[in-house]
Amino acid sequence: MKSSYAKTQSTLALGDLELLLALVRGRTLGGAAERLKLDASTVFRSIKRIEKDVGEVLFDRGRQGYMPTDLALELAGYAERIEAQLQDAREAAFKSSGEPSGKLRITTTDTILHGLLLPVMSRFAVMHPRIELELITSNALANLSQRDADVAIRATRKPPEHLVGTRLGTMQAAVFASRSYVERSAAPLRLDEADWIALDETLADHPSVKWRRQRFPKLVTRYRCNSVLSVAGSVVWGLGVGVVPLFLMQHQRDVQIVEGPVPELETELWALAHPDIRHLQRVKLLFDFLKENVTL
């Protein structure tokens, strides 16, 4: 989208690129402001000033937030390269002391975070006290190209080709029920007549949903949850039966497998990063740590 601004010699500075990159990543004035620790009005005025300087509109404003134009994305690419080189310089400065540092943003699902990462991450934090951990939970794969996160921990059979990573192991799932639920149900427990706890429509493409519909096409679920972690909790407290990863139930003595593990639900767990930052010391350390300490 062309602007009416008159093009002159640009005075674009490093701080301008940093602000532009923050808005590309944050997608809203508030999101950019939070990243930069500024207020939204300052971000708005700064973007208007930068657009006037370069003589182009850099963002299309709409319901989805601030959508970057091609030029904005190109400039953000320069900003990312500068950011990566700056981090390399910082790591080089600390390399002689052997003490890695910097912020490490990790994104994963709440299920993996609570079931696998949190039980072991305290050891990583003690081993590397200068590394700042930022843990983000989401069911969507973060845009690692735009540095929404540095590392993504995801369950997948086919990792995205544009990312590099380490396979952490194989995840299995089964149909679980609490012992109290089984005891109060008619014997033997029939899964096609049981009270099912299932994921809701926000996760309609989840493998467990597809499997259940194929296995029990006429089944009507009684309970709906918007996370696997919630399904697991509902099973533990005796509401009914549900598909849950084995690692979530490994320490629950009052639950039992009523079918499975289900081969169709087997998948892999990966730690993924963008190739541009895979070489960073803190990323390498995390990958090696997870490979040794995550138990499935």
Automatic annotation (TrEMBL):
It comes from the Bacteria. InterPro entries: LTTR (IPR050176), LysR_HTH_N (IPR000847), LysR_subst-bd (IPR005119), WH-like_DNA-bd_sf (IPR036388), WH_DNA-bd_sf (IPR036390). One of its GO terms (molecular function) is DNA binding. Residues 12-69 form the HTH lysR-type domain. It holds the Pfam family HTH_1. Keywords: DNA-binding, Membrane, Transcription, Transcription regulation, Transmembrane, Transmembrane helix. SUPFAM superfamilies: Periplasmic binding protein-like II, Winged helix' DNA-binding domain. The chain crosses the membrane at residues 228-248. The keyword Metal-binding does not apply. Belongs to the LysR transcriptional regulatory family. This is LysR family transcriptional regulator. The lineage of its organism: Bacteria, Pseudomonadati, Pseudomonadota, Betaproteobacteria, Burkholderiales.
